[in-house]
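Table S2 (continued). Query chain:
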Amino acid sequence: MFMKIRALFLLAVLFSFFSCKKQTEFKGYAFYPDGYYCKLLSIGDGNESPTSNQVVVLDAVMRTQSDSVFWDTKHDATNGLYVSLRNNLLGSAKDYYLRMVEGDSVSFLIKPSVFFRAYFDTIVPEFCKNDSLVRLDVKLNQIISKSEYDAMVNNAFGEDKEEDTELLELQNIDCYLLNNYKYVKADENGIYVISKTTTTLEKVSNGKKVKIAFKGSFLDGKPVDRTEQIIEFIYGTPDQLIKGLNIVIGSLKKGETTKIIVPSRLAFGESGSSNHSIPPYTPLVYNIKIIDIK
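Corresponding output:
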């Protein structure tokens, strides 16, 4: 009886959904504006949906746009694909996972740039460079808690958390950019330049006395210092500023301003600041102005 009621409910929801959503050329798929198309393949017999603090364990098959399988759980992850629903990079797929129950099967069509960042935390590989979409078919096998997942990770890989912490930092930066500056990418140094003004005045160079104003903050907007800092120093002198600021200041001219995100490896690193005001693996946002060069 439960299955019949749930099936009728899902059909009603899907009918309403498809009636209201923009129709696409992909038959049976509903469109989400952040790079996803979704289609329900089959209904499971589970009773509960996951919450955003849980992890779903999936059977998964990943295909290129030409339908060539490049990853599946049968060969590449026999214990299943583990997806944390705390990951905001999942976009619309996260909302869909939160409505699924054990046994449900869903097909997603996803932009490669969104897919590879959300599921593999990497750039688009060469074999998908020319694809506009990647197909991901999943079946929800199990719902587990975050603590259960962490225990499995610790049992499998020990207590070394450094790689996970660096990955979490990158995900936090990506979430910040997704919500505020969607099209900003890291430069060759790993620094994210959000905005920059330009002048035709003198450029900063080694040996010059440079006067700058800068203010730092965390990704959540909390300031590092209460007020804007103004300092004067000889550019090129070691250990005057964190590495990320030195790199950016060296590219600026007198009167120019910029807003940047500096990853922790170019800021206070794995140890944090000496006064403990900045935790380990913390990216920082800086507003900088070159006041004078002498």
